[in-house]
Amino acid sequence: MSESGFGAKIHAVFVHTQDLKKSAAWYSDLLGLPFYEEEVESPVYNMPVTGETYMTLDDHAFDPDYHFEPVRTPVFNFCSADIAKSYQWVKEKGIMIVRDIEEHGDFGWFHIEDPDKNVVMICGTVQP
User: Fold this and answer.
1) Domains of the chain: residue spans and CATH
2) What are the Cα distances from residue 76, in Å, to 11, 41, 61, 128?
3) Residue 81, Cα to own-chain centre: how many angstroms?
């Protein structure tokens, strides 16, 4: 821990949304997580993701001065063990793909759009 009292560790990623329940359902489906609509309560919903970093959906219900703007450049990514398989799955689900797979060696990525038009990146391994 540094003198500041915090370290070089990300606690949470915030995804700003206009419809908290719709976004919670969409991200739950995308990530294969159970969705219980009755547990979604404004202004924030913490997605039950694994690992040390949280994913918080935020509708800013208590912030009357907030103006929503979709994030068009990804600020986080989901990991894939097989980028081509993930791309095909997303495509079959009818999720908007806004940037096709790009590859750099054995690493690849593509971009999708959530219900609020936020751009999300999926990165991972390019299988031989």
Assistant:
1) 1-65 (3.10.180.10), 69-128 (3.10.180.10)
2) 13, 24, 23, 26
3) 17
Q: Which of 19, 26, 23 is nearest to 61 (CA)?
A: 19
Is the whole-model pTM more than 0.85? yes
Beta bridge partners of 113: 119
Q: How many residues does the chain have?
A: 128
pLDDT value, residue 6: 75
Between CA 36 and CA 73 the distance in angstroms is 29
Q: Please tell me the distance from the alpha carbon of residue 88 to that of residue 104, in angstroms, as a whole number.
A: 19
pLDDT tens per residue, range 29-69: 999 999 999 999 999 999 999 999 999 999 999 999 999 99
Task: Copy the structure tokens of residue 81.
Answer: 């063990």
Q: 84-114: per-residue pLDDT in tens?
A: 999 999 999 999 999 999 999 999 999 999 9
Q: For the chain, give me the number of helices (H) and strands (E)?
A: 2, 7
Alpha helix stretches (DSSP H) within 1-128: 20-31, 83-93
